Amino acid sequence: MKVLCIAVNHPRFILSHRLHLVKEALRRGLKVVVLCPYDQEVQALTQLGLHVEIIQLKRKSINPLGEFATIYSFYKALKKINPDVFHGFTIKPVLYGTLV
Asked: Which of 27, 32, 52, 67 is 20 to 30 A from 45 in CA distance terms?
C-alpha cells in the first residue's frame, strides 16, 4: 500500500485546507499519515481514517535547541513511516520535512 505523509504545524489545517486531498487519497486506496503536534483536532483526523503521528513542533518557537528537537522528531517519524510521497504544508513542516 502506498503511503502519503502530510506534515502540518496544526491538525486543523488538514480539516480546513487539505480535507479534499486526504479524502481523495483514501478513496484511491492510499494510507494517509499526518505528522502534527497534538491538539484536540487529532481525534477528528483519526475518525476520518487518517493515521496520525505526533511530532514535537511549536509553531512560534525560534529557540535553536527546540528547533533541533523538532527536526529530530521529523527524522524519527519519517524514518518510521517511510512514505512514498511527502507533502509539507506550512513553513516549518516544508523546511524541516524537506531537510530530513
From this structure: 67
* Amino acid present at 4: L
Exposure b/e, 18-49, CB count within 10 A at least 16 = b: beeebeebeeeebbbbbbbbeeebbeebeeee
User: What is the amino acid identity at position 13?
Assistant: F
Distance from C-alpha of 41 to C-alpha of 66, rounded to nearest angstrom: 23
Handedness of CA 43, 46, 50, 52 (dihedral sign): positive
pLDDT in tens, 15-45: 999 999 999 999 999 999 999 999 999 999 9
